[in-house]
Amino acid sequence: MSIPNLLAVIRLLLTPVAMVLILQSPDNRTYAYVGAIVFGVAALTDFADGYLARRWRITTTLGAFLDTVADKVLIT
Hints:
Helices cover 82% and strands 0% of the residues. By secondary structure, it is mostly helical. It has one domain (3-71). Helix 2 (29-55) packs antiparallel against helix 3 (61-75). The longest helix has 27 residues, at 29-55. The radius of gyration is 14 Å and the shape is elongated. The model has no long low-confidence stretch (mean pLDDT 91).
């Protein structure tokens, strides 16, 4: 598996973590801040996987599919 594809998988795995952290108890804002940071890291992996795939010219059908699915899951 190439690094851009691995980054897309990581983005898929970070999404539920960010969601759970953000939706924790409203009394404790620390979870929301950590969730926002996790969301930001996931968003950075979106930029990184696209950049690396184009720069290294290693676009694949699997990568194109994973990237769109991971984007939709993250934004939803």
